[in-house]
Amino acid sequence: MLAIKENALFIADSHYPHHGDDFLALLQKLDSEEIQTSQLFLMGDNFDLLFGHNDYIQTFSAEAISLLQTLSEKLEIHYFEGNHDFCLRALFPYITVYSREVQPVMFQLGEKKVAISHGDKYMTGFGYDLYCKILRNKITLTLLKPFEKAIINHRMKKLSQKHICFTFHGFEKRVEEILRHYEDADLVIEGHFHQSKKVGKYISLPSQACQGLVAQVEEAEVVFKQL
Ligand SMILES: [Mn+2]
To answer: Cα of 89 to ligand 1 centre, how many Å?
Structure first.
């Protein structure tokens, strides 16, 4: 089992480039080593829309993508794909990318068994399970090519106007349901819900776009902080 290292950094739900520049700014600080970490966990939805096998979508976030590619050659990075960023393996050869299908992934933090995932695994709806397969399909790609820019522009515009920061009322109830899948884990770390809240052994990470916070391991504890 892989270990979560002291000082490890978790960045969740940045929704870059539509909902603030914090993600890019933090990547720049990591690159210049103004901020240092032993291990970087990108918890998904770091990009508001990004997927592999398509050049046009990359033009919206070119600087952040290129920084991540550079960073990944000198820093251990784990990327848990979210529902907004998927099919990323082709884009980031030096990052360990976990597709939705293989999540949650078990890590060790001290003596604790920690289950990590983006957090949308146990939701209903199968739409984005198909994305990767469709995107990889040469025939579909060829057929869609003439409409590619219009489809992506439309989608990007919609996403940029979407309100993404909400208080989830009754969140504890939802956590209870999620935790039924995690009886053998001592700690569960997820993004996706943008709640920045700890409920028992469940950690709902802050959204970098909503709370402006990230999480870091300090003395084997996961703490939320501003960087
Ligand atoms: Mn999500």
So the answer is: 18
Tokens representing 191 are 């993004």
Q: Which residues pair with 164 in a beta bridge?
A: none
Alpha carbon of 205 to ligand 1 centroid (Å): 11
> How many Å lie between the centroid of ligand 1 and the Cα of residue 48?
9
Residue 160 phi/psi, 5-degree rounding, is -70, -25
Is the whole model's pTM more than 0.85, yes or no?
Answer: yes
191 CA to centre of ligand 1 in angstroms: 7
Distance 44 CA to ligand 1 centre (A): 7
Domain of 26? 2-225
Distance 170 CA to ligand 1 centre (A): 18
What total of structural domains would you count in the chain?
A: 1
Q: pLDDT tens digits, residue range 106-134?
A: 999 999 999 999 998 876 445 555 666 77
Alpha-carbon distance of 43 to 14, in angstroms, equals: 9
The CATH number of the domain holding residue 193 is 3.60.21.10
Tokens of 181: 């899948």
Could you give the CA distance from residue 123 to residue 215 in angstroms, rounded to a whole number? 24
Beta bridge partners of 224: 215
